[in-house]
Structures are given as structure tokens and as C-alpha cells.
Amino acid sequence: MLSQLDSYAGPSQLATPVFTKAQLVDVPSQPVDTQDDCYLARIPLEILLRITQSVPTTDLGNLRLSCKVFERALFSFFSHEFFRKKQFMVFPTSLQALIDISKHKKLSLCLRHVIIATDRYLDHDSSGYLGGRRNWEQEQERQKRIACAGHESLMSTGLLRDMLVEAFSNLPNLETVDIRDFNAGSRNRDGLGTCWTSYGATSLVRLTGEFMNHNRVMNHNRATSDPYPSQLFSAIIASLATANARPPNIEVVLRDRGWGLFENAFYIPPRIESSVLPVLASLTKLHIVFAQEGASPNTSPFLLKRFLSLTPNLTWFRLNVHGNGSSIWKRQTELLLTWLGLGETDPPLIDNDITPIRLQFLEQLDLGLVEMEPPVLLKLVLKFSSSLRRLSLRSVSMVDKKNDPKLNVNIWARIFQTLSKKAGLNLQSLDLANLQFVTQDDVVSVPLRIGGPVEFIDGQTKESRRSQTYTSQFSMMLLERAAAETTPMWPVCT
């Protein structure tokens, strides 16, 4: 698979760099011709690295092929940029490339971050009729059907897990496994706006004439009906367990706010439970996007709670909650956050509930797209006060049920003031973005300006900043500043 060249660049994306086997083979310790007499080969390494930092991927590959001295000199730099972190998709050739890399003597040691992206083709025509089309159109349609069939075969036969197990078992330095629904636009080497894409994605685009889909399937207008991320998450957990792999970081990063992990994604089959438990116990960073979809407002996400109870060594926990914004969703979210904030001596929220988690090593807590009342947040922060150093609140809505909306009470300022007076809290970073509060029954929704107004060069035009990161070695100063600079943008009464 590594011998295939994936060099097609679409309008908005560029192929993930793939090099020929000649470029990837281990360099022998005694090369036949070191080409040491070549003038270019005598260029100091720091200058050579400076020159190659900005050349396009194709030119870099050609340079490495031109001279064994260059190939040897650039290998560490080359492998760090292109193989330390690499993105794949659920497609046979893409996963086979992951396996090939894992079996490579040197590249297997470089790969530390594996991304499984949600690329796939959707809604393909399975009628079998190709008449009336030109030859190249027929061939594109055939290639798309092959791609769809390959993807569906991996998902339905268990081959996805088998291939991931084979790869994970040969990656001794694996640190992070990541599920995402986007291509990162940070590939500056090949021009502004180009992206890192999944291995093989741009080759499929060239063969089929269609870009792949990262996003969810809409089914009967239910935004969260597509279980694909949940299926990937379950397969990855099972694969890590079977492969006896222990990466400290698992991340789910979904930009589509209608997508997330269903509760079933956190189910641990009894048959592999003994293998899964060490995987969860070794986690220090867990980022998840939870999709609430229960029918009852008092439904408890039992499987998610149990999953979290098996991750005692987390130092960084991120929870984003995607849903439809209904009253049921809001209630379920608040119950989950309330459970996270329960102490060991607090009574359970419901009968036979999961014992509250301790997370005694938690240093960073990120909450996003959630709604709660002030006591829930206060208790959650204070529970982890002995270890918590960084708190991130993004798109968080605070429900104010006590104060009359007409009194214009800044409930967020009160929360930060309350926290600033708590002994034992040692926050050093507070990241705030898109905060708001709502009155009871959602009568009034008030966004917040954070950090004061921003003044443009003309000295007249101003806008409201909606995000700010506060840092300080002193928790009290940090929180007092946040309280002073968090200003509600009250609606204008007419």
C-alpha cells in the first residue's frame, strides 16, 4: 500500500503525503554509494533542514530519492512531520496502509497519534444500471460502489476491528487515538488552506469524481440518528483491548453539533471486559462528545457513568454534549453533571446509581454545549479543587431560577466571586467562550461580553468579545478578574 502515490489535490484539500517504498525503506548502515563527494551532500544539516521546511511535499520526496546522504539526514525530520500523526479512514487500502506502517522497522516507532476519520460515501445508487453514461462516468460509478462495499464490509464483518488490532499491536509508542469528522487545515507546506486528509481519500476522489462525506446521515429529521461515531468508538476500544495497547489519550472531536456518541458506545461486553479495564485505567486524557437522546427527562446515562468510573487516572477530561436543545435533553445533561459533582458521602440521585467518581488526579476540566444551574457548576469545580488547575467553559448556559429577570443580576459574576473566596482552589487558567444565562422557562436568554469591548483602529467602532483566557498563579486574582470583566449584554427594553 505504501507504494501507491496519493498526489491528487482537490479544490479544497490536498492528499496526505504518501511516498514510494524506495523512500520508506530503511537505509542500510553500509550503503553501496554514500555519495559523500557530492557538493550538496556537504551542506550542514541545519541549513538543509531550513531549505526543506517550505518546499512542497512532492519536491521533498524527490530530494530524498536523489541522494542517500539526504535520505539519511532528513529521515528524522521527515518521519516526524509525516508519520508522527497520521489520519486514516474505514476503507481497506487506508487501514492496510496503517498496518504496513505499523510493521515498518522505523516508522512504527514514529507513529504516536492515529486519527480515524469519518470519511465515507453515502447514498450510492445500487440499482446496477449504468446505461446511457459515458465510459469514464461508468467507471467512476463502479469505483464508488466498490468504495461503499469495502466500507460496509469492514463495518459488518468485524474486519475493522481485526485490522485495527493488527496495527495497534505493532505500535509501541502509540499515545493518542482520535476520532474526528474534519480535515485539519494546517498543511502549510503545500500552500495556504490545504488540509491533512485521510490516507487514500484523495485517490478515491480522483477515481470516483466525488468528494467523501465526513458528516452524519439525516434520518427522518433526527439529527443524532447516525450511529457511525459510536460504532467507531466501540471498535477502537475493543481493538485496543485485544491488542493489549495502552495509549494514554483517547479523543473524540466532532464539529457537527448534531453528532455524538450514543450511550451504547460506552457499553463494555463481558467477553472482553477483563481486557478493556486496563485500557481505561491507563487513560490520562479523555475527550468525548455525548449525544443525549433519551425519551425521559429523568433517564440516567448509566453506561456512560460506568465507563467514566473505570477511568480513575484522568488528568484531563473534556465533555461536550450534543443534542436537540429540548427540555428533556437539558434535564438529562444537568443530571449527568450533577452526578459528576457528587462527593463520596452524597446520597445517590437515583436508586442503584453508579458510585460517584473521584478523579483525584484531574488537572483540567473542559465543559462545552451544556446547560446547568449555578450550584451544579460550583459543586463540580469544588469537588476537584485539590488538583484542578485549568477550567474551560465554552458555550455553557447558566440557568437562573432565583432572580427576577427585571433585576438584571449577573449570575456569572456571582459564580466567579463565590469561587474566588473558596479556600483550597488553585486554578491557574480559566478559558471562557460564548457564555450566556437564561431565566427560568427560557424567558430571557442573555449572552455575555467577556474581557471588555474591543476597539478598532479608528477609535470608534467597537465589538463585543465573546471569549477570553485568564491565567494567573493566584486563583483568587484570576477569578476576580473574570467576575469583573464578564458583562451581560442585556436586551434593550422598548
From TrEMBL:
Domain F-box: residue ranges: 37-86
- Quote the protein name from its UniProt record: F-box domain-containing protein
Annotated organism of origin: Bombardia bombarda
